[in-house]
Each structure stands twice: as structure tokens, then as C-alpha cells.
Specification:
Layout (H helix, E strand, L loop, with lengths): L18 E6 L3 E7 L8 E8 L6 H4 L4 H20 L4 E6 L1 H5 L3 H12 L3 E3 L2 H15 L5 E6 L4 E7 L2 E8 L3 H8 L3 H12 L12 E5 L1 H14 L9 E4 H12 L3 H5 L6 H4 L2 H15 L3 E5 L3 H8 L3 H4 L3 H13 L5 H9 L8 H13 L11 H11 L7 H14 L7 H8 L3 H21 L10 E5 L2 E6 L9 H13 L4 E6 L1
Parallel strand pairs: 1-4, 4-5, 6-9, 9-11, 13-14
Antiparallel strand pairs: 1-2, 2-3, 6-7, 7-8, 10-11, 12-13
């Protein structure tokens, strides 16, 4: 029994061993406890405290005294809590403020003495690369510019097909810009240009995506979503084309704090530095000329998590791995999905690798919502798929999977939320999502989700007809429900008739 909390730590018999990562930033300190070293970092606990350790750092050269007291209390709680949860490892990482402060080493020594935890003070290069690894955790083999904005620094790193290129760590954290310039836009821009304009390799990033990481830029994404009336509130992989991003970010950079507070989607503490964060991003886009701006909720902590994954897990697709884990936990027969993939392949001949990946994800999710109330099953399957914190999933792909699950559970296609998702897709993609959902529905109607039956059934289309061949003398493949489901698939494919043939 843990005396401090009265809680029993998770034992070695637990299904997974939690992994705790504490990030001591210049503005906030955060604890994330992940549910084991699996392919997708799944937070089972997430808490932050805004300590502003880096406030006044440039003027004093030392950590904010008030913030140090808050940090000491927060770190004591976080380490004790991670231990109480039975964390197999606790990684404590300190970034720019602790790295640059004259009293940073003394702060680290005192915290290590008080908590018993080992603190790693990251270099600028390590901080930049961990942030990039966090993005790569969801996008293996990615190419682009990763920019991680904290309270004390802006860390930039070039990524080319999963490998690191040039990097820079600049004293352009939101706290430092605010202290240098206050509310003076011209002074802030001068300070930003002084540092950013010295990075010659930024111009070589033209036409590549820019991945924006960090709490200040996540708040910026929330404002962009509110400003545009975008139908999805998920911040990860929220993407803006260059022209739209330029306009929105520049607009926000010119707003007063009072006007930004009226949006209500950003905390007052974040609002205070949001114009500077927007101004910094605006100038970064001027120099790098990205093809699109992508906001990522994954960064340093997920990079640290990803770094410790076995190579065999890193090789897995994060979306498929997450869906397979969900199928094991929520579905009745998770192995049925692999049979569905083989059985449905003739219907989707010629699909791209990306389309096959989404079909696999949909097959895995197709039985995950079986225990929802029947009257709300289609709606719940749609909403949960649309909003679930999947890693490695573009927003259009979310809409595709959600619409597939909606059709799989016979949802009313005129539902307003379904129409919103359909508007995010091309007509062709929307039609394919419905076709996939109806094929999944046929598979489950015919088998009840039970493995071992689909391998005996074949699908083929020719001369305007969809034919399904089933073994003769097997009553499990006979029924009006099967005929209706098959007919819906045929109509969605533009075929005139459907028929069940026996062999």
C-alpha cells in the first residue's frame, strides 16, 4: 500500500505496465502516464500545471522564484502519482528554461533529492529531435519541417522520409518574446526576425508541410477552427492550405488580448501570449513557404515514448495497430477482420495502399460498437469514430471511416452530422465509404461476426450483376436478411441485380 496516497500500485500481473513521462517546460509542467509500451501512446492520465519557470529568465538569468515553488509541489505530486500507478519507468525531461537558467542545475539537484527521480536536461538538439519523433510516431517516414514552440524556445528540425536533417533551437519561446516586446507588435517582429532570419536552410523547406507543435499553437488551431466553422474539433492533423493559413494566422496576430478572449475557446493564460505565437508562426511561414500547415498534438513526450518502442512495434501502422487493439477490447471476434479483408478484396480490386489501409481499419472497427443501444448504434459508431483520438489519421480519413461505420450500422444518410462529414470528402470518396460500410454490414449479417464462415463464400461482379457463391446445403447462408444486404451492396456499386449461387 502506498502510504502517500492509500492506493495500491498496479501489480506485475496487470495487463500492461504504465509508462510515465514528466515534461518540465518553460511555461508548464505536465505528467502523462501511458497505458504501456504499445504502438500508439494512449494516455491513461494527463495533467499539467502552469508554473512559468521561464518567466523573467532573460532579465534575471534565473528561474522564476514563484514558479520554482509551484514546480516543486507539482513534481512531488507527479512522481508520487506515477509511482502509485505502478509505472514501469518514469522519465523526467527538462527543457529550455532549466537548461538556460544559472540556477538550473541547483533546481534539478533539489528536485532529484526530494523526489528520488532522475531528471534529464535536454539540449536544444535533443529537444528539437524528440518533438519531431513525436510527430513521426503518428506519421512514420514523414517529410517536412517540425516546429515546436514552448515558453522558452522555438525548436526547428528538418525531417526527410523519417531521417533528421538540419535543426535549430532559438530563444523565441512565447514567454521570452512577450518579455522582450510586451504588446508592441513591431518590437516583437524585430526580435523574431533577428533570430529566424539567421537560419539559412529554412528557405530549402519550400513546398513541404510545416508541422506546428506546442500548446500555444494548439490554442491557435482552436481559434482557427472556431473562426472557420470547421465541423471537427479534433486538433491533431487539423490542416490549412498555405493561403488560408497565412490569412488566419496574420489576422489572429493582429488581435488584442481582449478580442481574443471573446472567442472563449482559449484559456486566459494562453491568450496573453497568443498574438506573439501567431506572429512567430506567420514569419516562419514567410521564410519556409510551406505547402500546408499541419497542427500536431504530439511532440516531445510522445517522441520520448516512441524512442523506447521496440523496432518491431515501430514498424506497425499506428492506425491499424490502434484499431486492432480496440477490436480486441471491444469486439466479439477480432480475428474476423482479417477474413473480411480477404473476402471483400474482389469488390475493391485496384485500390491504393492508402485505401487498403482504411479498409483494414474499417474491418477492425466493424464489430467494435455491437453493444451500443440499437436505436443509437449507427450514430454512436459514427461519432466515436469521427472523434476518437486515433494517431496517424488525417481528418478526411476520419470522415471516411466514420461514414463507413455509419453505413455498416444502417444509419440514415440524411442525418446532419453525416452530411457534415460527407462534405469533407469528394463524391467518389463519399460513395466508396458507403460501399465499404454496406460490404461490412453484409459480412456481419451473413456470419454474425463469427470467424470461420467467410472463407467459404466468394464475391464476384460481372455483366451488371453481383454474385455471391455459397456452399450448398449450408443453412447459415440462407435468409432474407442476407439477400437484402447483398442487394444494397449491388445497388451501391451501380449493379442492376444481385444473386446468391450455390456450389
Amino acid at each position: 500500500m502506498n502510504v502517500a496516497t492509500g492506493a495500491k500500485p498496479r501489480t506485475t500481473q496487470s495487463r500492461r505496465h504504465p509508462v510515465a513521462i514528466i515534461d518540465i517546460g518553460s511555461n508548464s509542467i505536465r505528467l502523462c502516464v501511458y497505458d504501456g509500451l504499445i504502438r500508439t501512446p494512449t494516455p491513461m492520465f494527463n495533467e499539467k500545471v502552469l508554473c512559468a519557470l521561464g518567466q523573467g529568465l532573460d532579465a534575471r538569468g534565473r528561474l522564476n522564484p514563484e514558479g520554482v515553488g509551484m514546480a516543486r509541489a507539482a513534481l512531488g505530486r507527479f512522481v508520487a502519482l506515477a509511482n502509485a500507478m505502478g509505472a514501469a519507468r518514469i522519465d523526467v525531461l527538462a527543457t529550455a528554461a532549466v537548461r538556460d537558467a544559472k540556477d538550473g542545475k541547483d533546481f534539478v539537484a533539489s528536485i532529484e533529492r526530494d523526489t528520488g527521480a532522475k531528471i534529464t536536461v535536454l539540449s536544444g538538439e535533443e529537444e528539437a529531435k524528440l518533438a519531431a519523433l513525436g510527430v513521426m510516431c503518428g506519421k512514420p517516414g514523414m517529410t517536412g519541417l517540425v516546429a515546436d514552440l514552448g515558453g522558452g524556445s522555438l525548436d526547428l528540425v528538418e525531417v526527410d522520409q523519417g531521417g533528421f536533417g538540419s535543426f535549430a533551437s532559438l530563444p523565441l519561446g512565447v514567454l521570452r518574446i512577450a518579455e522582450k516586446a510586451g504588446d508592441d507588435r513591431a518590437k516583437a517582429l524585430d526580435h523574431i526576425e533577428k533570430h529566424l532570419n539567421k537560419i539559412p536552410w529554412l528557405s530549402g523547406m519550400q513546398g513541404q508541410p510545416l508541422y506546428a507543435v506546442g500548446g500555444a499553437w494548439r490554442s491557435l488551431a482552436r481559434l482557427c477552427i472556431a473562426q472557420t466553422g470547421y465541423p471537427l474539433q479534433v486538433l491533431d492533423n487539423f490542416t490549412l492550405g498555405r493561403r488560408e493559413a497565412d490569412g488566419l494566422v496574420d489576422l489572429i496576430s493582429r488581435q488584442s488580448k481582449r478580442s481574443l478572449e471573446k472567442f472563449g475557446s482559449v484559456s486566459k493564460k494562453r491568450v496573453a501570449t497568443l498574438p506573439q505565437a501567431a506572429l512567430l508562426l506567420s514569419h516562419l511561414m514567410v521564410l519556409a513557404k510551406p505547402e500546408r500547415l499541419v497542427f500536431s498534438v504530439y511532440g516531445l513526450r510522445e517522441g520520448q515514448f516512441y524512442k523506447h518502442l521496440p523496432e518491431s512495434l515501430k514498424a506497425e501502422d499506428p492506425l491499424v495497430a490502434a484499431c486492432r487493439d480496440l477490436a480486441r477490447r471491444l469486439g466479439r471476434f477480432s480475428e474476423h477482420a482479417d477474413e473480411i479483408m480477404v473476402w471483400s478484396a474482389p469488390i475493391f480490386a485496384g485500390e491504393s495502399d492508402q485505401e487498403q489501409r482504411l479498409r483494414m481499419a474499417a474491418a477492425l472497427l466493424s464489430d467494435a460498437f455491437w453493444n451500443e443501444h440499437p436505436d443509437y448504434r449507427a450514430e454512436q459508431a459514427f461519432l466515436r469514430t469521427f472523434r476518437m483520438p486515433f494517431m496517424g489519421l488525417e481528418h478526411k480519413e476520419r470522415a471516411f471511416l466514420a461514414l463507413s461505420m455509419f453505413a455498416r450500422h444502417a444509419g440514415n444518410q440524411d442525418a446532419p452530422y453525416a452530411q457534415q462529414a460527407r462534405a469533407m470528402l469528394s463524391d467518389e470518396a463519399g460513395k466508396r465509404a458507403e460501399q465499404l460500410g454496406l460490404v461490412l454490414r453484409l459480412a456481419h449479417v451473413m456470419t454474425g461476426g463469427t470467424p470461420g464462415l467467410l472463407p467459404h463464400v466468394r464475391l464476384a461482379s460481372a455483366l451488371g450483376e453481383l454474385a455471391m457463391m455459397v456452399p450448398d446445403g449450408q443453412p447459415v447462408f440462407i435468409g432474407e436478411a442476407i439477400e437484402r444486404a447483398l442487394d444494397r451492396v449491388a445497388r451501391s456499386l451501380g449493379l442492376k441485380t444481385s444473386v446468391i449461387r450455390r456450389f
